[in-house]
Structures are given as structure tokens and as C-alpha cells.
Amino acid sequence: MHTTASQADLDLAVSEFRSAFSEIAKGAAAREYHREHLFEEVKTLSELGFGRLRVPKEFGGFDVSLPVLFELIAELGEADSNLPQIFRGHFTAVEVLRHTLPSDAATRWFTEISAGAIFGNAQTEPATPGAGYQLSTRLKHEGDNYTLSGRKCYSTGSLYSDYIRVAAMDDDDKHTFAVVRSRTDNVEHLDDWDGFGQRLTASGTTIFTDTPVEEHGIYNVNEIAAAFHAPFVQLIHLANLTGIARNVLSDSIGLVRGRHRTSLHGLADRPADDALVLGTVGRISTYTRTVNALLTSIVDILHHADQRFERGERDVEIYTESYVAVSEGQIAMIESVLASATLLFDAGGSTALRSGTNYDRHWRNARTLASHNPVTYKPHVIGDYRVNGKSPVNFYAT
């Protein structure tokens, strides 16, 4: 029996989250520089209830709105951008559970999440073609039990998780999801992610060998939930990028305030009085305001789509509009954040180049996030929808 969380409970939890974010931020640059994993940080956030933000209240969750969720994700991204990506698979799993599962399965998983369980992600496979591809990971039916076997890459967060939501093919060659335990001899985690950014997300290979599927662990995603799924997962990246933009702004301000040397061509004795340096910070501030405004606008669109879904409306077009809005935001936000991360070095001069400061992580992490669901295809997707009314291809509905 769960006690329903009150507004006071949520307010206290949010205050505790923000205190944790502040502590996390203090060591973020050094952790990434030395490649120190985030097990303690994930544990702290889990124990505070961060993972149950969107769990319905009847199961012990806070059931926050999407605007609250994405603002907190942005704040966490400002502290350490690795963490929102680690939790991306978890929040996506919660969202799919909200929209898909029958009551007995929902009770099982929401109860576990409220108790602190964290979900990881394992969907992508090496060397597979585009939308509609056949996964090599297969479900095997043995009596009343199921196992799965396969190899996944980019399995972000799974190393930190208790359960993993695995994409697989069933006996009818249809895409399905299966939930397995993360800590078992039948699951091998290879921390082999070698990307130059988001180094602590454990986005490496996971190998499943006759791994038992949990009770209530097999489910398919209905068409509407699938259409909601795509913009939701991308919006987590955009909230994370927003956090990076905020961090770049605060770092640039701190850099300029702390600088004493100026250039031969400087306009003032102190960089903090130099009009060109101040103008650079002003441009970073403008980019950050743009990113913040876009995030608020796009989250509001998805929030209203979610509310309509909760009222029982089943129009896929609701979510097509959300996908297009997220894609438009993706283009503008990526350009803004990458520009800000570069301008930081104009504001900081050679001081910003010292490896111990690790300021380059902002650009590397933003560039890595920008490479998910490649932005190069999004202008065409948007234009084809606006001109020809063609809805974006939705992998999750295949």
C-alpha cells in the first residue's frame, strides 16, 4: 500500500534534487576528465526518488507534468550532462509503461520503480539498416517462460541499471520489448563506449545469452504510444543540451570575472571591462535564452499532446505535430549550443584551454548529443510534412 505523494512531498523532493545537483556539479569536470563512473551519483538520485517523477501517484510516484520533468532534466544536465542521458532509458521506459501496460504489469513495474529501481536501455544493434529493420536479438518461448539472446550497442545507462528494456523480435517477427535483470550472469556489460563526448554514460555493448525475461516483462507499444515515444526520447536530449548551454553561460561569466591578462589589442585593462569580451558573453547569453525558450515551447506542445492522450484521444496527428516541433527545436538548439560552446573560448582566451578546466567537454558533449537521431535529416522531414503532409517515419510503430 503506497502513501500518495502530496505537493509538499514533491516540493521537498525537488529541493533535495537541486541540492544533489549542486553537489554533482562540483566534481563534474574532474570526473569526466579522469573517467570516473557515476554509480554513486545515480544511487543518490535514485534514493531521493528522481526515477519516480512520472510514476502515477497511486503507485508511489510524484506523477509530475512533462514541463516539471524536463526542467529538472535540464537542471541535471547543467550539473553533469552524462546523467540525463543515463536516465534517458529509464524515463522513456516509464513513459511507455504509462501508455501501454495493463494494470497487473503496471502495478509490478511502477511499484519497483517507486522503490528505487532504475531501467536501462538496449535497442540499437551494430550494422543494421534504417527504419523497419529486423533485429537479431530474439525472444525464445519455453513453456510459460521466455529468454532472449542478442548483442546490443549504444546501450546507454544499462551498466548503472537494475533492469534493462530490450528491443527484440518475437516468434511472429514483430518488434517487441522485453524486460530483464541487469545484474545476472546472463548479461555481460562491456564498457567499451569510446566516443569523445558523454564519456560516462556507459553507452557501450551489452550481450544477452539466454537471459530470462521477467514476469510481466513482455509488451508491445501501441500506435499512439509509439508516436509519442519518438518526440519524447529526443526531447530528453534537447533538455540536456539546454543544461549544457546554461553551464557554458555560467562558466563564461566566471572565466571573464577571473581573468587578469588582456590582449595586445584589448579595449580595456581588464577583460571584465573589455567591450568585445563582454559582447561575447552577451552572445552566449542570447543563445542560452533562445535554447531555454525553445525548450519551454516544445515541452508545452508535448505536454498538451500528452493531456489529450490521457483524456482518451487517439489521433496520431497529435504526436506527428509533436515530432515536427521537436525536430525544429533540434535544429535551432544544436546550432545555438555548439556556437556557445565555441564562444566560451573567445571569452576565456588561452586560460580556457588548460586541460584541467575541461571546458572542451561542453562542445564534445553537445556534439555527441547532437549526433543522436542525426539532425542533418530533420530539415527534409519538416519540409516534407509542411509541404506534402507526409508524416515522419516512426520506427517504434514498425
UniProtKB/TrEMBL annotation:
Major place of residence: cytoplasm
Q: What is its EC number?
A: 1.14.14.21
Keywords from the UniProt entry? Flavoprotein, FMN, Monooxygenase, Nucleotide-binding, Oxidoreductase
Q: Which reaction does it catalyse?
A: dibenzothiophene 5-oxide + FMNH2 + O2 = dibenzothiophene 5,5-dioxide + FMN + H2O + H(+); dibenzothiophene + 2 FMNH2 + 2 O2 = dibenzothiophene 5,5-dioxide + 2 FMN + 2 H2O + 2 H(+); dibenzothiophene + FMNH2 + O2 = dibenzothiophene 5-oxide + FMN + H2O + H(+)
Protein name, UniProt field: Dibenzothiophene monooxygenase
Q: Where is the Acyl-CoA dehydrogenase C-terminal domain?
A: 237-373
InterPro entries xref list: Acyl-CoA_DH_C (IPR013107), Acyl-CoA_Oxase/DH_mid-dom (IPR006091), Acyl-CoA_Oxase/DH_mid-dom_sf (IPR046373), AcylCo_DH-like_C (IPR036250), AcylCoA_DH/ox_N_sf (IPR037069), AcylCoA_DH/oxidase_NM_dom_sf (IPR009100)
* Gene3D superfamilies linked to this entry: Acyl-CoA dehydrogenase/oxidase, N-terminal domain, Butyryl-CoA Dehydrogenase, subunit A, domain 2, Butyryl-CoA Dehydrogenase, subunit A, domain 3
The pathway where this protein functions is: Sulfur metabolism; dibenzothiophene degradation
Q: Cellular location of this protein?
A: Cytoplasm
Q: According to the entry, what is the taxonomic lineage of the organism?
A: Bacteria, Bacillati, Actinomycetota, Actinomycetes, Mycobacteriales
Family under the similarity heading: Belongs to the DszC flavin monooxygenase family.
Name the SUPFAM superfamilies on file: Acyl-CoA dehydrogenase C-terminal domain-like, Acyl-CoA dehydrogenase NM domain-like
Q: Which residue intervals define the domain Acyl-CoA oxidase/dehydrogenase middle in the entry?
A: 123-210
- The EC class name is oxidoreductase
Sorted alphabetically, which Pfam families does this protein's record hold? Acyl-CoA_dh_2, Acyl-CoA_dh_M
User: Any keyword Chaperone?
Assistant: no
Q: Which species is listed as the source?
A: Rhodococcus globerulus
